[in-house]
Design brief:
This protein is α+β, with helices and mostly antiparallel strands and about 150 residues long. The chain is built from 4 helices and 7 strands, in the order ααβαβββαβββ.
């Protein structure tokens, strides 16, 4: 009888813990809430340091100083933006798009941390398929400054 009660208690505890950890659309850390916060902040000119972590060439993973004007990248590491050379650099709007794309495609793992003031994602980790090695990627934004 004690063993049966222990199992019932264990499963009920597991059930309630799993339910309480579920994130709903009303949770402050959701994509829609933070995207709205970013939109309402009306920041279109800003600078930040952007870094990618992946199984890529070393040049891709180095931190890059980025200047954005009117929502478009103008300058990377004090050089004029070149779409071919800087194709891996993302704006804040691009990061939101990556989150949405990973969500829509059912990524195996998606971790996002949002800035509490402006709502932009300052850390994003995506593992699109757990069965594939070395395709994981993360993006980080630091030293963000609206202009």
């Amino acid at each position: 009888m004690i063993l049966k009660q222990t199992y019932v208690f264990f499963f009920l505890t597991l059930f309630f813990v799993n339910c309480s950890n579920h994130e709903t659309e009303d949770t402050p850390n959701t994509l829609s809430t933070n995207k709205e916060k970013w939109f309402n902040a009306s920041v279109v000119d800003y600078t930040y340091v952007f870094q990618i972590s992946c199984y890529c060439i070393e040049e891709s993973t180095r931190p890059k100083s980025v200047f954005v004007r009117n929502g478009l990248i103008v300058n990377v590491n004090n050089e004029n933006f070149n779409e071919e050379t800087h194709s891996d650099i993302l704006t804040i709007d691009d990061l939101f798009s990556e989150i949405q794309k990973a969500t829509n495609q059912g990524a195996a793992k998606l971790d996002v941390s949002y800035d509490t003031i402006y709502g932009f994602p300052f850390y994003l980790f995506i593992d699109r398929d757990i069965r594939i090695a070395d395709e994981e990627i993360s993006y980080s934004v630091s030293n963000f400054k609206p202009l």
